[in-house]
Prior knowledge:
Distance between the termini: 42 Å
Number of strands: 0
Amino acid sequence: MTGKNLRLLGVERSTAWQPSIHEIISELKTELEKGESVYSQEEIGKLAGKLAEYEFILQRLTEP
């Protein structure tokens, strides 16, 4: 499992980590770029779904 961001996959929880929505989106994009060399298809789908959700939330928050 080396190289995977287990926090973004929902496997690990960090009480100290309180990121901004921009940080979350950036981390998700970085992890998705690693692709199948690190993540399974199921995990990539999970990360992509989270990215889409956070991008939608950000869009809604920034609309006039």
